């Protein structure tokens, strides 16, 4: 089939016609991309973009017999665009970044935080019932007043602070035995 017939059929959605166009002109596009010394990935992007531009312009090709020239010109333009983009996106020297801390939290921060929290809850479970109840009530959001804690746990208000301190001391001790250091305390 001639190029005019293939273009018309491809414009109507004929997959076989499109496949024939690709088979006929793919080597032309690849040779132009390789002549510009693009990486394999960049050359593939250029070839794919050229085919996309043809799809977008299928109905506008006035002289189908000149399609090889249109494809070659479009491929060259895309190669030059890719080369300009590559020049702007040149990676920095690796040595510059080796001593710089990564921005944001470490990749494993959420995992480590989850493991720490689970170990802390296990340590809390090893406390006496009175300490567990008191610390859980005090962890509520928003924190309750000591009067509310005293009423909920049937404790004198004056004993909440000292009991809290003793319970936190025991929790720190158990957390230390579980491998949780106190360096993370705020």
Structural key phrases:
mainly alpha; rod-shaped; 186 residues; single chain; 70% helix
Brief summary:
With 186 residues, the protein is mainly alpha-helical. The protein is 70% helix and 0% strand.
Q: What does this entry look like structurally?
A:
The protein is mostly helical and 186 residues long. The chain has helices at residues 3-11, 15-35, 40-57, 67-88, 94-98, 109-125, 129-138, 146-153, 157-177. The model has no long low-confidence stretch (mean pLDDT 86). The termini are far apart. It is 70% helix and 0% strand. It contains 9 helices and no strands.
Q: What letter string, H or E per element, gives the SSE order?
A: HHHHHHHHH
Query: How many beta-strand elements?
Result: 0
Structural class: mainly alpha
| Count of alpha and pi helical runs | 9
Radius of gyration: 35 Å
> Low-confidence spans: pLDDT under 50, at least 5 residues?
none
The general outline is: rod-shaped
Oligomer: single chain
Major sheet details: none
Instruction: Please state roughly what percent of the residues sit in beta strands, choosing from under 5%, 5-15%, 15-25%, 25-35%, 35-45% or over 45%.
Output: under 5%
Integer average pLDDT: 86
**Proportion of residues in helical segments:** over 70%
Give the terminus-to-terminus CA distance: 77 Å
Present the secondary structure layout:
Elements: H1 3-11, H2 15-35, H3 40-57, H4 67-88, H5 94-98, H6 109-125, H7 129-138, H8 146-153, H9 157-177
